[in-house]
Amino acid sequence: MVELKSCPFCGGEAQISTDTEAVKDTMGRFWAYTVVCSRCCATSGLTYTPDKAIEAWNRRESK
Ligand SMILES: [Zn+2]
């Protein structure tokens, strides 16, 4: 598992969130995973694996 960095906007603690109402696409991918800052509610956007959510989130740190 990749390390989840702190929020690039406010430095708050980030966590993985799973959208239980997400639907599968035609490829069978479940677009339910996102990383959300617990302080300012910034998000990475939805992805279909937790790892991809973390990657998307960590990319935000470097402009
Ligand atoms: Zn934040």
Oligomer: single chain
How would you write the strand order of the largest sheet? 1-2
- The percentage of residues in β strands lies in 15-25%
Radius of gyration: 12 Å
Report the principal-axis shape.
elongated
Uncertain residue segments = none
SS-based class? alpha+beta
- Please provide the ordered H/E string of secondary-structure elements: EEH
Q: What this model shows, in words?
A:
- The chain is α+β, with helices and mostly antiparallel strands and 63 residues long.
- It has one domain (14-59).
- It has 1 helix and 2 strands.
- It has one helix at residues 50-59; strands at residues 14-18, 33-37.
- It has a two-stranded antiparallel sheet.
- The longest helix is centred in the last third of the chain and has 10 residues, at 50-59.
- The mean pLDDT is 92.
- The structure holds zinc ion.
Question: Can you tag this structure with a few keywords?
Answer:
binds zinc ion, 2 strands, two-stranded antiparallel ribbon, 1 helix
In short, what is this structure?
This protein has 63 residues and is an alpha+beta fold. It is built from one helix and two strands. The structure holds zinc ion.
